[in-house]
């Protein structure tokens, strides 16, 4: 794949080094990368390019056409000897654990065809800077030793759920970058300065009061606020009442689920939670624009969202064929929570195993941690839970897999596939009892 | 005379049929089937967009308020350009969104099929031109869009 020359002159401020790279001082392929970045920066009214200061995270983890980076382009970059300035992590590897996932022959064939070339893709990514084969997860920030950017570090990430977590909970700075451009910026080590990288771009455009009578389901709350705000920056008040004022693991997990949904239903790249998230703790008043839109979320809003976004299967009539939990990938503590809830429910109903095939998706790192925690691995296996490092959305992107009746805890998975989302308590009951729930017994 | 002036994002001239979407254009949802196999043309698959659903988009001039959707949109535009399945031009009422701008910049730099793009044409873009009309885009230092019979 050979880049062609663009005639559009750059208008944003460039350093001598930027200009040299544009002219080809460091090779024609890097020059083409800089031309792409400059064209994009001009379009976004960027004033200058700034350094990429930390690890990358990219959504394009496989060669699926139009979803990942073209394999030929990756090979061109690799052959030119280019590398990212810092290591990077990727979204989950295309599914290969077909037995664990319980896929039938048609699903296996469709996914194999869809992800043809994924080994070459992985090899190229490892050469370009992928941290390791354990770096395939959409939540690389949930474990020690993962991809956890420092506060105020300037990044070029994609994967909407990761972008919104990095910006909001970790107070790093990244725009929602397009697939391909994310890699380009990390190779160039430079990116246009605009949007969520800037102080002004991080100010709240909406003030949302959470007025629910109990802790709202994070995914449904995210969907409600995503629909309200679209691509704005919400400042959320009243949530600290339910999730506290300290960013402990449980709170971070809640915000992970909330943000993933808000970014999928809307296009939110940053939110602030009053009394909790880093930027809201320091500069509350300066963080909200004067003409900010005001709104609220009530118990009724959550209920309406549940009804509005009801999935494609009627769980009062149809017995689901499978359940996916873990879009985005679960943390270790979240898996502990699901194990406890499911064990308690099984015990109360006098059962030993789940009635519906249930698959939990998590990072390779957390999978390894579970294997080392013998009692947990044994317990999950004994009640019938299967663990995968794959992506539920990737699996269901194959039309033949998307036809299977699937339930999930994820608003994001429901938004992009035929899966039906249920709140956690309803989901536990359904996968424990299966047909008994559906038949109303 | 029906003519609008905007800002050049990706330069070039083209003349083709307009297709107007009054809703924000969801790039991945619209083009997803065109990414699979070797289709003859890209037909819009976004069933939530009644203006464009089911219509051919290849070679046309796409008039939109803005675009929304997945960060994969960047790779989608590159893929469409490389396979000659893309619209001839994208015209935006407001400032072009970041994902579309990035995708079009990559298509312009890495393929032989740059997609002309003009933004900041104003909200009247969506009323000035109608789906099916032939319009001409001239995007250089300044950018002009006009209906063919008004030239």
Shape of chain A: globular
What's the number of domains of chain B?
1
Distance between the termini of chain A: 61 Å
Extract low-pLDDT stretches of chain B: none
Tell me what you see in this structure.
- Chain A has three domains: 16-197, Aconitase, domain 3; 201-307, no CATH class; 312-438, Aconitase, domain 3.
- Chain A contains 21 helices and 15 strands.
- Chain A has helices at 16-23, 28-43, 71-79, 98-101, 105-114, 118-128, 160-168, 181-188, 218-229, 240-243, 249-265, 278-282, 299-308, 332-348, 364-372, 374-383, 392-396, 399-402, 411-416, 424-433, 435-438, and strands spanning 49-51, 56-58, 88-90, 154-155, 173-174, 190-192, 204-210, 234-237, 272-273, 288-297, 322-330, 357-362, 385-388, 406-408, 420-421.
- In chain A, helix 19 (411-416) links the parallel strand 14 and strand 15.
- Chain B is α/β, with parallel strands linked by helices and 151 residues long.
- In chain B, strands 1-7-6-4-2-8-9 form a seven-stranded mixed barrel. A two-stranded parallel sheet of chain B has the order 3-5.
- In chain B, a hairpin with a 3-residue loop joins strand 8 and strand 9.
- In chain B, helix 2 packs parallel to helix 3.
- The longest helix of chain B is centred in the C-terminal third of the chain and has 13 residues, at 98-110.
- At the A-B interface, helix 2 and helix 8 of A face strand 1, helix 2 and helix 3 of B.
Give structural attributes.
heterodimer; A: 441 residues; alpha/beta; Aconitase, domain 3; 3 domains; four-stranded parallel sheet; B: 151 residues; Glucose Oxidase, domain 1; seven-stranded mixed beta barrel; two-stranded parallel ribbon; 4 helices; 9 strands; 29% strand
